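Hi team,

Below is the intake form for 2-dehydropantoate 2-reductase from Roseomonas fluvialis. Please confirm the fields before the structure is written into the shared record.

FORM ID: S-0412
PROTEIN: 2-dehydropantoate 2-reductase
ORGANISM: Roseomonas fluvialis
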Amino acid sequence: MYRTFAKHGRRLGSLTWGRGDDAMRLLVLGAGALGGYFGGRLVEAGTAEVAFLLRPARRAVLERDGLRIDSPFGAWQGPVATLAAGQARPGWDVILMSCKAYDLDDAIAAIRPAVDARTAILPVLNGLSHVDRLIAEFGPERVLGGLAKIQATLAPDGTVRQLNDWRWITFGEVGGGLSERVRAIEAAFAPARGVVAQAVPDIMARMWEKLVHLGTSAIGTVLMRANVGEVARSPGGIDFLHRMLDRNAAIASARGFPVRDAFLEEFRAVFADTGAAYATSMLRDLEAGSRIEADHILGFLLDAARAAGVPHEVHEAAWLHAKAYEQRREAGRLPAR
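The structure came back. Fields below:
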């Protein structure tokens, strides 16, 4: 069983942070594509005391086989500490939330017993609505902003498989600035192989940027049921993706978070790459007949487009497409696999 470490914290504003010379204690909710990859790389680096809070089936796999990562930056397999629901206790410096957005209610219930006055909750969920919800549940001093830029999936055999060279995790204080605690998280990740971790002073702007690119990708790949390269090779595909990128950037600007020129240039190139195999996790989930984050990405953007006065007919079509898929899935009418 994972042992409990005494904490001898020092003050960070209204927070107690750190335990002298002891390693940071980090609890990862879930060990799928994101949590398994970033948490596993920390275990491999040995710079933090890491445990995974898991559902029974995933916990059984990890206890039997260890955590396995298949990556362009090197494979790794090793034992990891795991906790089941009901075993979580206070004493964690950071809780990394890597669940799907539609599991937020269950995730909040799972981590609540582990949160104390020292805990920073770092969510890397898609979308933005979860930030306000977590602040309402745990208080503004407990919640960080975060995002992950990684193409990874959980293979049927339980291996976390990284699909390309995207390997970024970015985080910061929701209110802005660089605190001791986000710098400490950055330092813990620094030696980790295949990870670029960055603490930033403007995390909410960065999260809006991610939603701009993710929303564009999701609209294109979900509506067309094709990856970015396949859409780009189709007549008018590049212009369509660029048009949606501009509209989503206009939404972010209307919300007070103008998108950087360098970011737009980067993703114009991504969406013009006719050889790209890039596909959103939403498309992979659709193709697998799994649950999707329709409301948290497409629905959120549709509401934001309407409020901003941005043309939203395509946003509406993408959200309707995803909601109709959910209806088919609930009715058991998806094609047999």
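SUMMARY LINE: The CA atoms of residues 66 and 80 lie 6 Å apart.

Thanks, M.
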